[in-house]
Design a protein that fits this description.
single chain; 3 helices; mainly alpha
Length: 81
Amino acid sequence: MAGKNGRTPDDAANDDRFEVADNGIDDEDDDAANDADDDDYSAMMLLDQLESLEEEMLELGVTTLDEVRARIREMHAQMGD
C-alpha cells in the first residue's frame, strides 16, 4: 500500500539512500552473549535448587544423602511398601 508520497515500504527498503547502521554486534557475538545468559540462568537455577535442598534437609534433620535414603526406607517400611 502506497503512502502519501506514493512510495511503499518495499520501495524504502530497496532504496540505496537508506542504509542499515552496523551496531558492531554480529550474529556470533549475539550467540555468545545468549550462551552466556543461558549459562548464568542455569547457574542461578542450580543455586536456587541447592539452597532449597539445604533448607529442606535442615528442616528434616538430615545432613547426608545416606541419611535421606535411610529415612526413605523407614517411611516405606512404616507405610507397608
